[in-house]
Structure formats: C-alpha cells, structure tokens
Write a structure and sequence with these properties.
The chain is an alpha+beta fold and 262 residues long. It contains eight helices and 15 strands. The strands form three sheets. An eight-stranded mixed sheet has the order 4-3-5-6-7-8-9-10, sandwiched between helices. A five-stranded mixed sheet has the order 12-11-13-15-14, sandwiched between helices. It binds D-MYO-inositol-1-phosphate and calcium ion (2 copies). The site of one calcium ion (CA) has 3 residues, from strand 5.
Length: 262
Amino acid sequence: MTADRLGFAVSLARKAGALAQSMRDQAGGLDYTIKAPEDYATDADYAVEALIRQRIAETYPDDGVLGEEEGLKGRVDGCWIVDPIDGTINFSRGMDDWGISIGYFNGTEFELGVIYAPDKDLMASGQIGRGAFVNGKPVTLGQGHPDQTKLISIGYSDRQPMQEYTDRIARIRAAGMDHRRHGAATIGILGVLSGWFDAYYERALNIWDAAAGLAMIKAAGGVVEHGPFDTFLKEPTRVLAHNGRIPEIAQIVDPPHSQAAE
Ligand code: IPD
Ligand code: CA
Ligand code: CA
C-alpha cells in the first residue's frame, strides 16, 4: 500500500485519460447509453470508472469510492470521489474541454484532488497543506493585472431554471465582468487554478464534478462554497470556487444564497 494518495491519483488520472482517448480514437468510435433526455454516457465513461475503481481497490482496499456511473461503494469517511469523464458531450464530439476528476474526501473535508485534461495536456493536482500545481508549477491565485476584465466561468444544466441562469449572466455583465461556459465543470475550475478565470459557479452541481477541484482551490488559498457535506454527498448543491479577487462575487452569481458559505 502507498501512503501518497496524491501521487497515486496523478498517475491513475494519466492512465484513465489515455484509456479514454484510445477508446474515442479507435476504429468504429464510441458506443452510447442514454441515461436521461440530453444526458448520455459513452462506453469510455464506464470503462474509465471501472479502471479507476479497480486500481483503488488494489491499492487502498479499505477506501470507499463514489463515482458518477456506479454510485457509492464502501465507506464515506475515507472515500474517493470520481467523475471518470467530465464533459462527456465535448469528449464525444472531439472537443478538448473534458477532464478526469479524482478527489479524496476524508470524512471532514475534500483533502486532495486531481483534474487531468488529456487533450489539453494539463494536469492539476493539490492537497490541503501542500498547495496546488498545474503541470508541476505552483498555483498562485489572483495574480492578474488590475485592469484585466474579470472572467467568471459558469455551468448550466437543466437542474436549474433557464431564467435564473440568464439573470446570472446579466448580473455578471452589469458588474462589468464577462462570463464563459465550457460544458465541463472541471475545465471551469481548472481555469481558476490556471488563472484564466476568477471564479467558477454552478447552481446545482454534483459532488463528483466538484470534489477534486474544490480541494485544489482550497489548497491553493482560494475560497470555496458548497452545500453541507451530508447534503452534497447525496444531491447537487450550489458550488462557488474563486481566487478571492472579487469580494462581492457570491452576491453577483447567487444573491439569495450568498450567506450560505461553508
Ligand atoms: C456535466 C458537466 C457540465 C455541468 C453539469 C455536469 P458530465 O458533467 O460538468 O459542465 O454543467 O452539471 O453534469 O455529464 O459531462 O460528466
Ligand atoms: Ca461531470
Ligand atoms: Ca461524467
């Protein structure tokens, strides 16, 4: 058994990313499973999650795993939280905005996380107390020039009303900022770590989309907000991750919930 869960997760994410790319690029392409209207998984989503579960079981047999495709198996207070492919639609259409997300929850906090974006050749990793890194370079949040336009990355799914989403964009614009949407929460959070964005926000985000990224943002000295863990482990909650440069960001993206910080 290895004690270095972060190193293990980095190496595992690389293997997972290579598997996803090879399945996408194989002759005959990907197979699809329709999960719900406008929500599908490819055979690569299932294969990558199976690979990650197998390697965790071999290396940390006492740890639990909560994955998007197969749910929770084992304990929660010492649990890997995995999105095998985040941004499946982008991935399946040949875009590069997708990532492998592997986080670890120790029962009290998101302790460490890795987001690997294989087509972008970006590996973000971080652990509370050890800082965060993108391709080995330490992350220093909030270093942009004061005159730069502030950029807020936001997510959208049909778990939230469209009007609320468009109102949010209007408030961001009214505050003199701009927004981006990449169709992959991991890419939005990776963007905060990389200095592309000042914040990532999504009104109803699942824990497997966020756990790894939130661990890294916190490890890098940024600010994270989400619903209470006992709720978040079961259902989507609001998620805000930011670099601390915009004190009023919670009010701008989500006024009614701005006091619900965790
Ligand atoms: C989705 C993406 C999307 C976000 C959704 C997620 P998936 O994950 O991260 O950007 O807005 O909330 O469900 O289905 O591609 O793994
Ligand atoms: Ca996802
Ligand atoms: Ca997914």
